[in-house]
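F.,

This is the one I mentioned.
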């Protein structure tokens, strides 16, 4: 097994009205989140990681017009249950934030080995559903992001 790179993306998929897509993890029932994923290689540009993860996890096509690098990152402690995926001794991950705006809620094509359900919620409710503090924080910041892009 190849070790995961401890650098990832978080992609908040949302509508101009502030509805947010959440997907439930297949390996952790009840764990709702936005699109996330690790870099494929250390050379892979973060924007490409975000585009690839959106396509893999939702089937949506991200373009430079609708996928924006928020130019923010957070370092967090990797949950012990998932540390086996990383090199021995790796306990932290750096997560880079992106936003993907879509015109309206759409049904997405989930990757069944990764996610089992989807829901569109107002950003406030979505923030309460997310298990990850970094995801919660990104969603609480969404109104500011939306005012900048409008």
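My design for it:
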């Amino acid at each position: 097994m190849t070790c995961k790179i401890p650098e990832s993306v978080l992609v908040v998929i949302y509508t101009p009205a502030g509805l947010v897509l959440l997907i439930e993890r297949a390996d952790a029932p009840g764990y709702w989140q936005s699109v996330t994923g690790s870099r494929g290689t250390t050379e892979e540009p973060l924007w490409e990681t975000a585009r690839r993860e959106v396509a893999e996890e939702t089937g949506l096509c991200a373009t430079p017009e609708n996928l924006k690098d928020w130019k923010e990152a957070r370092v967090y402690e990797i949950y012990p249950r998932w540390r086996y995926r990383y090199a021995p001794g790796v306990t932290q991950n750096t997560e880079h934030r992106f936003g993907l705006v879509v015109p309206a809620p759409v049904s997405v094509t989930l990757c069944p080995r990764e996610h089992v359900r989807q829901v569109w919620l107002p950003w406030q409710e979505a923030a309460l559903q997310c298990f990850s503090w970094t995801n919660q924080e990104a969603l609480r910041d969404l109104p500011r992001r939306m005012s900048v892009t409008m």
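The two ends are 44 Å apart (CA to CA).

Talk soon.
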